Amino acid sequence: MARPKTAYVCAECGASALQWFGSCPSCGAAGTLSETIAEKASSHRYGAGATAAAVAISGIEAREVERAPTGLAELDRVLGGGLVAGQVVLIGGDPGIGKSTLLLQALAATPAPARTLYVSGEESAEQVATRARRLALQAPRVHLLAETQLERIVAALEAGRPQVAVIDSIQTIWSETMQSAPGSVAQVRECAAQLTRRAKAAGAALFLIGHVTKEGAIAGPRVLEHIVDTVLYFEGDPNSSFRLIRAVKNRFGAVNELGVFAMTDRGLRGVANPSALFLQQHPRAVPGSCVLATLEGTRPLLVEIQALVDPAHAPNPRRLSVGLEQNRLAMLLAVLHRHCGVATWEQDVFVNAVGGMKISEPAADLAVSLAVVSSLTDRPIPGKVVAFGEIGLAGEVRPAPRGQDRLKEAAKLGFEKAIVPKANQPKGKIEELEVIAVERVDQAVARLREL
Ligand code: TYD
Ligand code: MG
Q1: Which ligand is closest to the CA of 234, given by its number?
Q2: How far apart are CA 226 and CA 112, in angstroms?
Q3: What are the C-alpha distances in Å from 408 to residues 201, 359, 394, 428?
């Protein structure tokens, strides 16, 4: 096979060179050259005779995409209902979090007669088979290939034509056409691009497993995220047995959907009602705890927010948040002071979302503020109360999206009271739930004292 030519392209100015230099010969930037496959000039030439006709958007017939369920309901939920033909999914996560187990299970659960292939670049075929046996997976149709070389993997894909394939992991795959080491940016990018092109051409779905760096991004170039259709993160507290899978990019569905799994010695089990997981079971009400009715994707979820407010022993009091935004906490403390007379400048303030949840929506504001007030006053919020609502700098409580769904979830789990923004007050009654609607944060704090 003729070796494709490689070139070295500068990430700063885009100039290309035939050999590697420490600094770009064109713009002088240091360490910006990386190896790529030099494309044939013909693919870039749009000369006379080349036509590319644009079409009016109304003239294009929109078809509902067909989705093939993977057989794991929680994975299908994050994918938006299943896999689309030719879909390429990048899934990242810390080592040992369970990525290989999840995808082996997904292939085993893929409904017949689909053919599936699991390419393992990290473990031998025996190791993968042993794991399948230990998890008691019924996977007679899953084919295994222990291989790291791209050209041989592509040949196996051509020969077996699987409808769903998994590459575990993309960082171990290398192409003989490039000199750089496996795992290098150039190798990862080129191998992912070639596998993606093949999956699109064959109309087969492809999962790429990716390692996560210390900073939490998928190792290798960010371009990987641009090449693929869907980016999923598999995460969870290593000390807990719960695992979350979320979509951060999805060309075929909503992002920020959440799938929840419990880890067992028989592999991952989907958790259909995850709210119960994120509620700490306290024998009696404790100060500094408030239950938030949040949304993960389209799914309402109840999460306990905990706050600890304690006298500071250093000149600069600490503001620390786990699973919630730090800057938002500082803002909420300022709003509490200005609009409710709640002063925390001599206090350390810690807040935490229970169960390793990460909450980024502003609708968490009200629950965080109430938990802080509860801890500061050392008064538990009595009874079964949930709260949600965004707090503005003027002290106003703003509505949150899909308030009705949040309230229904709270009622379903036996909550008795909900403190919500006025605009989210439901028109009808929701089961046994008493709705306390507030317009301002000081009203919410005052209502807390009356509970
Ligand atoms: P593994 O899937 O190898 O993680 P990753 O591919 O992300 O590095 O899982 C790590 C270990 O945990 C492995 O020894 C199998 C074990 N495990 C279970 O026993 N049960 C489970 O449900 C999961 C997900 C993993
Ligand atoms: Mg693995």
Answers
A1: 1
A2: 31
A3: 45, 20, 29, 12
2: helix, coil or strand? coil
Q: For ligand 1, atom 11, which residue shows the shortest CA distance?
A: 96
Tokens, residue 315: 């000149």
- AA identity, residue 226: H
Cα of 343 from ligand 2 centre, angstroms: 49
The CA distance from 181 to 187, in Å, is 7
Record the tokens describing residue 148, joined without a space: 């790291």
Q: Which of 94, 99, 100, 101 to mutate to test the pocket of ligand 1 (most atoms within 8 A of CB)?
A: 101
Ligand 2 mean position, distance from CA 256 (Å): 24
Residue 168 Cα: closest atom of ligand 1: 6
Closest-CA residue, ligand 1 atom 2, reads 98
Instruction: Give me the amino acid identity at 180.
Output: S
What sign for the dihedral angle of Cα 12, 16, 21, 25?
negative
Q: Ligand 1 site: residues with CB under 6 angstroms? A: 93, 95-101, 263-265, 267-268
Ligand with the closest atom to the CA of 101: 1
Pairing of strands 258-264, 164-168: unpaired
**Ligand 2 centroid to residue 217 C-alpha, Å:** 17
H helix intervals, 89-211: 99-109, 125-134, 150-160, 185-202
Render each residue's pLDDT in the chain as its tens digit; 451 residues.
566 677 887 766 667 788 888 888 888 878 878 777 765 544 444 455 567 888 888 887 777 778 999 989 999 999 999 999 999 999 998 888 999 999 999 999 998 888 999 999 999 999 999 988 988 887 778 899 999 999 999 999 999 999 999 999 899 999 999 888 887 778 888 899 999 999 999 999 999 999 876 666 666 556 688 889 999 999 887 777 888 898 889 998 887 678 889 988 888 999 877 777 777 667 788 999 999 999 876 778 899 999 999 999 998 999 999 999 999 999 999 999 999 999 999 999 999 998 778 898 999 999 999 999 999 999 999 888 999 999 999 999 999 999 998 998 898 888 999 999 999 999 888 888 999 999 999 999 999 888 8
